[in-house]
Specification:
There is one protein chain. The strands form four sheets. Strands 13-12-9-10-11-14-18-16 form an eight-stranded antiparallel beta sheet, sandwiched between helices. Strands 3-2-1-4 form a four-stranded parallel beta sheet. A four-stranded antiparallel beta sheet has the order 5-8-6-7, with helices on both faces. It has four domains: about 90 residues, Rossmann fold (3-Layer(aba) Sandwich); about 60 residues, 2-Layer Sandwich (Dna Ligase, domain 1), CATH 3.30.1490.20; about 130 residues, ATP-grasp fold, B domain (D-amino Acid Aminotransferase, Chain A, domain 1), CATH 3.30.470; about 90 residues, no CATH class. By secondary structure, it is α+β, with helices and mostly antiparallel strands. The chain has twelve helices and 19 strands. The chain is globular and about 55 Å long. The termini are far apart. Pfam families: LAL_C2. This is ATP-grasp domain-containing protein. Keywords: ATP-binding, Ligase, Nucleotide-binding. InterPro entries: ATP-dep_AA_Ligase, ATP-grasp, LAL_C2.
Length: about 425
């Protein structure tokens, strides 16, 4: 289904020619796409269409049930009267539609992320095996077909089990001994079919590295550290991050640049943006994983405030072959970070409103999605939240204190009742 006639040509506001096809909607992508000024068709689900319009996208939407499926994308385009030859560029900033966009792009002969690169940026087993074969420090990784195979573990604990094509920490477990393996198998019942990635547990403090690559050269990156490693979400960790100062952490930035440059070379990711995670072991960074998209949570916002780095704009520009934007060395006098807000378990009886949240020390942006009557259960993955806030401090120490304080304040301010 198409919501606008495909035959109407639209003039580019800044002279960008061609017809861009986007696969999968990503929150806050619309302003960057509109700024390109070129003709754009966007493949989204029917449930996303209203949000895309509300954000200000007025060009053509093609509606499909599953934009991760190339068959559905191709069929949706055909129903709407499009031919692949009409598109000059195809892309996505959504984790789960990255490969589909590359498949369609290569079929169209359009500018796009190569399919091999897209697969390596998505599949954790293929990605880590490629990097290990090239000599980079990375966890030992293999694939199994069913969790039942863990009854005779393929490697010695501790190890991590996760979906090879997952995102965040959904369906991800650290298994430290036979008892934890048995507990996982018992909790899953018959729901054990994979495939699953099994990788050795890597020690160190988790950092995220985000930036821009053009022509195979890393032109900008920023390093942030998680306050707690995300793998520990099931054990009560909170998804929170602080941006690291390039001067104070000069060695960290040097190591990050070396790791990113070599990793992207191996993955053949030459043009676009990246979101990488690694473990800081004091004397080196160990690769964790890398995506060919902008970061989640409030990563984009914290880097925009800290360095003036607009990663969504850089993503959009790379799709159509525009040069990188303004990449000067601007730095805010403040230090920025974010935290997700979590309530206690139970039926929600009262939630602080957004005005109260924005009034807390250092908060510059925020949202609250939790509502009275909701039932909040055990934390299962790193995207789970009742709200989120972008916070600033005079220095890193003040920022960390503020992040902890607002998390504790929100949790204590939410009123819950027991769930029978």
């Amino acid at each position: 289904m198409s919501t606008a006639p495909p035959g109407i040509e639209q003039e580019g506001q800044d002279g960008v020619d061609g017809h861009l096809l986007l696969i999968g909607w990503r929150n806050q992508a619309v302003p960057a796409v509109n700024a390109l000024g070129c003709r754009v068709t966007w493949v989204v689900t029917p449930g996303e269409a209203a949000q895309v319009r509300d954000e200000g996208f007025t060009q053509d939407l093609v509606l499909v049930a599953d934009p991760t499926n190339p068959e559905q994308i191709l069929a949706g385009l055909a129903r709407s009267g499009y031919t692949l030859a009409g598109f000059t560029a195809v892309g996505s900033d959504l984790e789960f539609t990255l490969v589909a966009a590359s498949v369609v792009g290569e079929l169209a002969g359009a500018r796009c992320l190569p399919v091999r690169t897209a697969v390596l940026l998505r599949d954790k087993v293929a990605q880590k095996n490629a990097l290990r074969a090239a000599g980079l420090p990375v966890a030992d990784t293999l694939a199994i077909g069913d969790l039942g195979e863990l009854a005779e573990p393929p490697m010695s604990p501790p190890f991590v089990v996760k979906p090879p094509l997952g995102a965040g920490t959904t369906d991800t477990w650290v298994l430290r001994d036979e008892a934890e393996i048995a507990a996982l198998l018992g909790s899953r019942g018959r729901d054990t079919a994979g495939p699953w990635a099994v990788e050795s547990f890597v020690t160190g403090h988790e950092v995220q590295i985000d930036g821009v690559v053009r022509g195979g050269r890393v032109v900008r990156l920023a390093v942030s550290r998680y306050l707690q490693n995300l793998i520990l979400i099931r054990e009560g960790a909170v998804n929170a991050s602080v941006v690291l100062d390039p001067d104070r952490y000069a060695v960290m930035y040097e190591r990050a640049h070396e790791l990113v440059a070599r990793s992207l070379e191996i993955l053949e990711h030459r043009d676009g943006v990246f979101h990488m995670e690694a473990f800081d072991q004091g004397d080196r960074l160990v690769f964790s994983e890398c995506g060919g998209r902008t970061g989640g949570a409030l990563t984009r916002q914290q880097l925009g405030r800290q360095f003036g780095l607009d990663l969504m704009d850089e993503w959009a520009r790379s799709l159509v072959g525009l040069p990188a934007g303004v990449l000067d060395e601007y730095r805010s006098e403040h230090v920025y970070g974010y935290t997700l807000l979590l309530p206690p378990e139970g039926r929600i009886e009262h939630v602080p409103d957004l005005k109260e949240v924005l009034g807390r020390p250092g908060v510059v942006e925020g949202s609250v999605s939790l509502k009275k009557g909701d039932v909040w259960g055990r934390l299962l993955h790193s995207s789970q939240r009742a709200g989120r806030v972008l916070v600033r401090g005079a220095d890193e120490e003040e920022l960390v204190t503020r992040l902890h304080d607002i998390g504790e304040w929100f949790r204590s301010a939410v009123v819950v009742s027991p769930v029978p």
